[in-house]
Amino acid sequence: GIQVEQSPPDLILQEGANSTLRCNFSDSVNNLQWFHQNPWGQLINLFYIPSGTKQNGRLSATTVATERYSLLYISSSQTTDSGVYFCAVVWPGGYNKLIFGAGTRLAVHP
Amino acid sequence: NAGVTQTPKFQVLKTGQSMTLQCAQDMNHNSMYWYRQDPGMGLRLIYYSASEGTTDKGEVPNGYNVSRLNKREFSLRLESAAPSQTSVYFCASSPFFGGGVYNSPLHFGNGTRLTVT
Fold this sequence. Notes:
The complex is a heterodimer. In chain A, strand 7 and strand 8 (69-74) form a beta hairpin. In chain A, strands 2, 4, 5, 9, 10 and 11 form a six-stranded mixed sheet that branches. Chain A is mostly beta strands. The relative contact order of chain A is 0.34. Chain A has no helices and eleven strands. Chain B is mainly β. Chain B contains no helices and eleven strands. The radius of gyration of chain B is 13 Å and the shape is globular. The model of chain B has no long low-confidence stretch (mean pLDDT 91). The chains are: A mainly beta, B mainly beta. Chains A and B meet through strand 4, strand 5, strand 9 and strand 10 of A and strand 5, strand 9 and strand 10 of B.
């Protein structure tokens, strides 16, 4: 099956700093999504981004499908950005099911 | 508009006991999913229901059964709980099957934290 690897596994930032989270995948994908799990455990869909670049406020994401990676950028980080960020992919051999990476745990300190 | 509602929020079981986790969505979504989340492993798909009346196995179905009761409700049953099933369980729904293939993002419930002793 497809492998989804996220890096770094853990990240600590001071409020106001910028960061880049990476998601590598081992096979072609039909689509890719980024999720944020807040400290209370809620999972929020951030981006549906099979290719190209999207922006939503301080967050943006870029997927280069031909090179099998996606990047999530967080600018001017805030304490509310803390939590775990997951990327998830759908691949042609996976019968349309989302496969999740292990996540990047982000802690933003004031 | 409640979205995806899971009950209960917390549960402790003894090995061998059975229980059913309930999930309901009010968004008129066709597809529903059950995931489990273990530390350091992301989310893994247990079972899914592409549409009302159908269910199918995901990555880790052993020890679980599901029922798509109607379009709104999708339950997960543990017939004989084992300590390895200690996890956080998430239900999700999407307008169409694929959770994104047709730009059909997943909406998650708040999870059920299950401990099996």
